[in-house]
Amino acid sequence: MAPPLTRLTGLFRAGNRDHSPLTSAFSLIICGLLAGVVVAAAAFPVAAISGLATKSGIEAFDSLPTEITVQRTPQNTYLYASDNKTQLAMIYDENRKDIEYREMPQVIRDAIVAAEDRTFFTHNGVDYKGILRAFLNNKNSEAAQQGASTLTMQYVRMAISYSATHPADVVAATEDTTARKAREVRYAMQVEEEMSKEDIITNYLNMAPFGAGSYGVWAASQVYFSKQPKDLTIEEAALLAGMVKAPSAYDPTTEEGKKLALDRRNNYVIPGMVELGFITAEEGEKAKRAEIKVNGKRTPGGCVNTSKNDWGFFCDYFYRWWMDQETFGATPYDRERRLKSGGYRIVTSLDPNIQKSARANVGRYAADGNRNALTVAAVQPGTGHVRALAVNRVYKNDDRGNEPNSDPVKRRAGVRGTYPNTTNPIITGSPDVGGFQGGSTFKLFTLVAALEKGYPLTYDIASPRSYYVSNFPVEPNTTGPCRGRPVYCPANFSSSLTGTFNMWSGFGRSVNTYFVPLEERVGADKVVDAAKRLGIKFRTEEDQRLEKGSSTWGAFTLGVSDTTSLDLANAYATIAADGRYCEPIPVAEIWQDKQKLAAGDPRCGQAIDKDVARAVADAARCPVGDRSETSRCAGSTDPGARDRIGKPVIGKSGTTDGYRTAAFVVSTVQLTVAGIVGDPDNHNTSMQGGGDAWGDPHSEAVNPAVINTLADAMKGKEAREFTPPSEKMITGKLVSIPSVTCNSEADAITRLKARGFQVQVSAERVDSTCAAGRVARTEPGDSTVEGGTVVLRISNGNAPPRPPANGGGGNNGGGGNNDDDDDDQGISIPDIPGLPDIPGFPD
Question: Spans of biased composition, class Low complexity (predicted)?
């Protein structure tokens, strides 16, 4: 992928010119003059030839190198939106875009010849008369010093500089020595033999520096006159040509520089154009009198200077993605150099219309000055193309006007907050920016793992108000419903969320005490593995530590791991794409030298079985008010999403304790949108309450921002149905569990293992009519998947209380509260690995 290397002498072939010993002799003399050695040569040229131009001298000159291996000059890289016409950003080290000879107007070619080399069309690379004239003039110390480098020699000098691989080589290419001048003359003569005048002047005008960060006539035209070269007038072209001699001195954006530049243009360049017959005297006088407006604004480069500020976070994501791609270089330095100098045309995946909608909806529900960040990401299922990245922040390095940090420790240390200005990748994450907890959106990964293990959608679990888990350890001496016992015991908020649930109703109602026992039976490590296959990354040190011991990460199903809107969107997009995972990618096409590179192609693979993904999608239609293909939904946490979007959808909301974060994902077959709201400076900040928070961060912020973005994107699009799952995924192959009620613990374990089941014994004793120490019941009760886990509940010897006349719950959790935002609010549970200081889960 490196910019191509080429020999100057092989770039452009033209008819060779004569090269005789006499030419070499003259050139050798000229080298001597340049070095100040041949003092008498001007007065006695014949003597000089007969004395200096000996055979050995000519041979020595002819033996100088004539070939230069040169890297292509640095070229601008352009980023465009997915429409291939909306320019997002320009990235460069040197602002340059090479253009062809036919794109350079005659007026700029004429002007540069008049300004720099009036014998250009008649010499063979070296202006002998000019060198003699400069030599004689420069011997008079009172006269202004003159140079005698032709356009060809200047081009050679610049080309050698660009071929340098070390700073010392650049110095050698421009140092004032005899050796350098001799090489330059020799190279120039050879270039003239192998390149046409058209090619030489084209390369020169593409390479020359014009000041204000512009290199080449295309960039100079843009910087100084905001136009393309083809539109330059005589007066503008003459001004640019006159600047090449000393861009800093002739800078027309300064008062003194403009005065000098106009003087050189009017008294030297334009008269030269008249003298050479390029323009008439009348045209010259008119050009001198013409008013000229100079802009002189440096062309914005990089992500901070995107055409629209809300594109900055996407541009930054692209830059970070590029820097991770080894195909663009072995080291980060190589990758950055190629990005800034490779002249790529990159069609990104950003859809400007979806981006506009996402940013508008984010701003509608969370102002830029809000300390809480509302992040939204949109991903296309089946390709991984990132269609939008929006947040209520300004992509800007300058934080001098930012508000105080919401973290008290950082605020006391004088650290400012990340609002409104920041360049932190809070939408996409990085090794230093982990994101926010995803809450119950992570329950989807438990569905995946359970279905893969053979548990069907109809799999029932009797879900209590709180659930005690013996094999997920917690810190000792904790308080809460576990009453100091070292077991994990998550809870639901309302008694209406007790009863028997299956995957449709458990996911639709977001029942914690359905998903924790399901995770327990499947294996927490299997759930974590499913999340990883769907693209969830563990960026924080704490998450990475817990991931290594994932078999006991009991809280994982409730979304205690940090994630980002982008990762969450892409995980659900994988489900929408029938289990085909695609790496999230910010590019659609990458072009260089009119060739499309494979580096921009989607990178996809089957992460989970299609039928498993279809079953997950069927359950995931329930939380967002859609009907599953099997019509088994019974309750919804976000019932209005389907009607607002007007298309078949899947999705889920998620909230962490105390509303420290609120997340929401919704997807059609064609597009997935996810959002999270949280405080990036202080993860303990509640999203519920006064000030910058909301009464309900779901209904008042993240949910409508996500839903409206997807609804806008889907206007006029086909309503595509999700493919229904197979009967196997719905009912599965279940085997009966032998009754071991009132058996001894040892006997029950023996009998169950003999039937191929895995057995766990709950540490929590329960009320039962069986004697203390005997098996009160099994969970599940009647049947489970072949080889599944059976949990033994042991009796405490106390008879259970009589049930109330009208108990809540029932099959599928009917009659319950549909508010996902407070399913478990206010329940206190102990500190557990991965769940620090979290007393309950609102969904």
Answer: 826-843
Instruction: Write the pLDDT tens digit of every residue in 79-131.
Output: 999 999 999 999 999 999 999 999 999 999 999 999 999 999 999 999 887 77
Beta bridge partners of 778: 792
The tokens describing 550, both together, are 């994932």
Q: Can you read off the two tokens belonging to residue 622?
A: 């329930």
Contact 736, 782 (CB under 8 A): yes
DSSP at 75: B
CATH class of 436-579+607-728: alpha beta
**Chain centroid offset of residue 414 CA:** 30
DSSP, res 803:
P
For the chain, domain boundaries:
5-289, 436-579+607-728, 730-817
802 CB neighbour count, 10 Å cutoff: 6
Q: How far is CA 69 from the centre of its chain?
A: 35
811 bridge partner residues: 500
Given 3.30.10.20, 3.40.50.300, 3.40.50.970, 3.40.30.10, which CATH number is that of 730-817? 3.30.10.20
Kind and range of the H or E run holding 677 = strand 672-678
Angle (CA) 477-481-483 rounded to 5° is 35
- The token pair at 219 is 């960039």
Q: Nearest Cα to 379, choosing from 600, 533, 561, 574?
A: 574
pLDDT tens column, 570-590 = 999 999 999 999 999 999 999
Q: Which helix (H) or strand (E) holds 322?
A: helix 312-323
- pLDDT tens column, 22-64: 455 455 555 555 544 443 343 334 334 344 445 555 555 455 5
DSSP codes, 547-615: HHTGGG-GGGGGT-SEE-HHHHHHHHHHHHTTTEEE--BSEEEEEETTEEEGGGS--EEE-S-HHHHHH
Percent of the chain with pLDDT over 90: 65
Per CATH, the homologous superfamily of domain 5-289 is: Biosynthetic peptidoglycan transglycosylase-like (1.10.3810.10)
Could you identify the residue written with the tokens 């540490």? 763
Q: What are phi and psi of 508, to 5 degrees?
A: -65, -40
Which residue reads 């659609």 in tokens? 588
**Are 362 and 326 in contact, with CB atoms under 8 Å apart?**
no
Q: How far is 503 from 506, CA to CA, in rounded Å?
A: 5
- Global pTM value: 0.83
Cβ–Cβ contacts within 10 Å for residue 145, how many? Answer: 9
Determine contact, residues 623/508, Cβ cutoff 8 Å.
yes
Computed from CA positions of residues 731, 735, 740, 744, in that sequence, does the dihedral angle turn out positive or negative? negative
